Amino acid sequence: MLARDRSMTLAETYLTAREAVIAAGYGGEIDWQESRSLAALSESDFLEEFAWVVLSSGMKEAVVRRLFPRISQAFLEWRSASTIVSRWRTCQRRAIRVFNHRPKIDAVLSAAKRVKDIGFSAFRDQIQHGGVDFIRTLAFMGPATSYHLAKNIGLDVVKPDRHMVRMAESAGGFSPNDLCEMIAHQTGDKVSVIDIVLWRYATLNLKEYTGIFTR
User: Looking at the 3D structure of the chain, how many domains does it have?
Assistant: First the structure.
């Protein structure tokens, strides 16, 4: 009974955070995450999301958002993996002019080559069957970035970034996944949606977000 009461309290707190995030103008992020579906993922979508996650690693979101339209131009608007690979040097040169981090730019090119070599349908099947473990075989995909990409392409997972780790620990020593699973059980929201709500709430309340579940 105590465990059930605790999960209900966590859910109520989450719903309050959700309302605050929507009121702050980020409801579109929630809608976007809810709409993510691996089955509906296109080749162009995958290449774009992969690039976004790689470039965002260790960077402020606002900086990447400002530069990303020019990155997309450098990569031919993510037309196809084969088109990007066929113009490898041109894409590489143009992208580095915008975002001077060659390992990250080369990681995007490497992912395009993986897709081209086996075809996107087979590539998407490997994501479906291998999940985050398969995603980690791609360049620049580590413990956090692999989950970030998984969320963005439609897998229902939680990204264990520093905000989520701190929030989950303050809620009762949970892991980010356990916290989101408990809330999902009470609310019916996907764990990936709960993740983005709590993450955005944290970015909006940097000085006090770790105390949200202890008030």
Answer: 2
Question: Are 137 and 176 members of one domain?
Answer: no
Does one domain contain both 48 and 12? no
Q: Is the pTM of this model over 0.85?
A: yes
Over the stretch 98-132, which tens digit does the pLDDT of each residue have?
999 999 999 999 999 999 999 999 999 999 999 99
- Mapping DSSP onto H, E and C, the string for the chain reads CHHHHHHHHHHHHHHHHHHHHHHHHHHHHHHHHHHCCHHHCCHHHHHHHHHHHHHHCCCCHHHHHHHHHHHHHHCHHHCCHHHHHHCHHHHHHHHHHHCCCHHHHHHHHHHHHHHHHHCHHHHHHHHHHHHHHHHCCCCCCCCCHHHHHHHHCCCCCCCCCHHHHHHHHHCCCCCHHHHHHHHHHHHCCCHHHHHHHHHHHHHHCCCCHHHCCCC
